[in-house]
């Protein structure tokens, strides 16, 4: 499973945060959530498949720990997003400008002329530009 898909679920994100504080047993993790132990085990299995968590057996108990190396793709993406410079003008500003230019052109074409005799070639030329 992809680490991004694994972290898409809030319970799994919470488990990762909890395991960042140290290894824990399934029973301890279950006590901290309002879902059943089998559900926690399924979430831990998916986190293990994503390489974010590993399990180690201690007798009859299974202890889960965070695998920080599994978070590398997420950390890389966040670093790349931080390094990408923001455009000086937002893309939405260009959309608004384009809309305003079209609206002004349409208004000029549909507005009745107040003085029909003042329709000089220079005015007509200005409208078509």
From TrEMBL:
The keyword Transcription applies. Residues 111-129 have a biased composition (Low complexity). It comes from the Bacteria. Residues 99-110 have a biased composition (Basic and acidic residues). Residues 89-129 are annotated as: Disordered. SUPFAM superfamilies: Winged helix' DNA-binding domain. Residues 1-86 form the HTH arsR-type domain. GO terms for molecular function: DNA binding; DNA-binding transcription factor activity. Keywords: DNA-binding, Transcription, Transcription regulation. It holds the Pfam family HTH_5. Signal peptide: none annotated. CDD domains: HTH_ARSR. PANTHER family: TRANSCRIPTIONAL REGULATOR, ARSR FAMILY, TRANSCRIPTIONAL REPRESSOR SDPR. NCBIfam families: HTH_metalloreg. This is ArsR family transcriptional regulator.
């Amino acid at each position: 499973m992809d680490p991004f898909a694994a972290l898409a679920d809030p319970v799994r994100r919470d488990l990762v945060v909890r395991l960042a504080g140290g290894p824990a047993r399934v029973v301890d993790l279950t006590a901290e959530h309002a879902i059943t132990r089998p559900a926690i085990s399924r979430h831990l299995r998916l986190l293990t498949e994503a390489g974010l968590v590993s399990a180690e057996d201690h007798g009859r108990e299974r202890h889960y720990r965070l695998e920080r190396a599994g978070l590398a793709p997420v950390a890389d993406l966040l670093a790349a997003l931080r390094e990408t410079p923001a455009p000086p003008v937002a893309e939405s500003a260009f959309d608004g400008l384009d809309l305003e230019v079209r609206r002004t052109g349409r208004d000029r074409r549909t507005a009745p002329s107040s003085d029909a005799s003042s329709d000089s070639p220079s005015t007509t030329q200005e409208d078509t530009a």
